[in-house]
């Protein structure tokens, strides 16, 4: 008798777990996914060389209205590698609220490389990164490094990184590491059309 009761109780727990799981999936699907502000860099920030909604650090990572080609609109973010004075990195970022903890997100951006005359003068790498803030501290939840040498010249390439949020906050980042050799840097990087999507929706759309 006890065994029957125990089996019945276990079955109830099992179905209860399935119900909770279904409810969690439904909640993730029902919440509007967080979106980036100004993903095509068309809107200027405090000054014309800054993109509204985006923070930055380091040198020469500017919003440009006159550069071509663009991926869409008429503005891009441009990294002026030939003008970089030191080996310090430069980056741009945006903070997003309304993520679902535990859900996977994909951040991406398009890049077009204006190559230097010789490869040794090119920037070294582009990192795309996702962070979450937990207990007041930022944590890297996913990072992907693209070597500039591996990217073709003057052709838009999609860079992506996917990771699960550790809280309801996300920070998306693009970080460029320049050539270490002062006085020899060349070329530039053009960035346009950043995006942030639930990873599952991207996978489904590609099927
Ligand atoms: Ca644009």
How would you sum up this structure, described in words?
This protein is of the alpha+beta class and 207 residues long. It folds into 2 domains: 1-30; 33-206, Jelly Rolls. Helix content is 18%, strand content 38%. The protein has 2 helices and 10 strands, in the order αββββββββββα. It has helices at residues 2-30, 199-206, and strands at residues 55-57, 61-64, 76-79, 90-97, 104-114, 125-134, 137-147, 157-164, 169-177, 188-198. The strands form 2 sheets. A 5-stranded antiparallel sheet has the order 1-4-9-6-7, with no helix packed on it. It has a 5-stranded antiparallel sheet with strand order 2-3-10-5-8. The protein is globular. The N and C termini lie far apart (50 Å). Calcium ion (CA) binds next to loops.
Outline the fold blueprint:
Blueprint: H1 2-30, E1 55-57, E2 61-64, E3 76-79, E4 90-97, E5 104-114, E6 125-134, E7 137-147, E8 157-164, E9 169-177, E10 188-198, H2 199-206
Antiparallel strand pairs: 1-4, 2-3, 3-10, 4-9, 5-8, 5-10, 6-7, 6-9
This protein binds calcium ion.
The site of calcium ion has 9 residues, from loops.
Highest-level CATH class of the largest domain: Mainly Beta
The named CATH superfamily of the largest domain: Galactose-binding domain-like
- N-to-C SSE string, H for helix and E for strand: HEEEEEEEEEEH
The amount of helix comes to 10-25%
**SSE-based structural type:** alpha+beta
The tally of beta strands, per DSSP, is 10
CATH topology of the largest domain: the name is Jelly Rolls
The biggest beta sheet reads:
5 strands, antiparallel
Mind telling me which CATH architecture of the largest domain this is?
Sandwich
- Order the strands across the largest sheet as they lie in space: 1-4-9-6-7
Q: Which value, in Å, is the CA radius of gyration?
A: 22 Å
Low-confidence stretches: 1-19
Count of structural domains:
2
The dominant shape is globular
Query: β content, as a range?
Result: 35-45%
Mean pLDDT: 88
Distance between the termini: 50 Å
What's the total helix number?
2
């Amino acid at each position: 008798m006890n065994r029957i009761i125990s089996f019945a109780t276990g079955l109830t727990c099992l179905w209860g777990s399935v119900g909770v799981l279904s409810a969690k999936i439904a909640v993730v699907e029902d919440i509007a996914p967080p979106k980036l502000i100004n993903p095509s860099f068309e809107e200027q920030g405090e000054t014309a060389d800054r993109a509204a909604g985006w923070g930055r650090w380091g040198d020469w990572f500017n919003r440009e209205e006159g550069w071509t080609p663009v991926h869409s609109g008429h503005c891009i973010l441009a990294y002026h590698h030939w003008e970089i004075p030191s080996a310090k990195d430069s980056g741009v970022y945006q903070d997003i609220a309304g993520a679902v903890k535990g859900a996977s997100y994909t951040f991406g951006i398009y890049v077009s490389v204006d190559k230097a005359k010789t490869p040794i003068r090119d920037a070294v790498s582009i990192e795309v990164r996702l962070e979450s803030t937990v207990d007041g501290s930022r944590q890297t939840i996913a990072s992907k490094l693209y070597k500039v040498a591996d990217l073709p010249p003057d052709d838009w390439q999609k860079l992506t990184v996917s990771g699960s949020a550790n809280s309801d906050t996300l920070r998306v980042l693009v970080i460029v590491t320049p050539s270490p050799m002062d006085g020899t840097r060349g070329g530039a990087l053009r960035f346009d059309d950043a995006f942030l999507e639930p990873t599952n929706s991207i996978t489904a759309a590609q099927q």
